[in-house]
Amino acid sequence: MSTPFRYTEPQPPKAATGRVAEVYEQLSREFGIDEPVTFVVLSSAPELLAPAWALMRESLIAGPGSRTGKELAALGVSLANRCPFCVDAHTVLLHATGDHALAERLARGERPENEEHARVLEWGQQTRVPGGLGPEPYPFPGEDAPGYLGTALAFHFINRIVSALVTENLLPGNAQRFRAVRSLAGRTLARTVRRPARPGAALALLDLPDPGESPAWAGGTAVGPAYAALLRAAMAGGALLDADDQDLVEEVLLGWDGAHPSLAPDPFPDRRERPGARLALLAALAPYRITDEDVAAWRRPEHSDHCLVHLVAYGAFLAVDRIESAFTRNSVRT
Question: Which of 86, 120, 229, 284 is catalytic?
Answer without folding.
Answer: 86
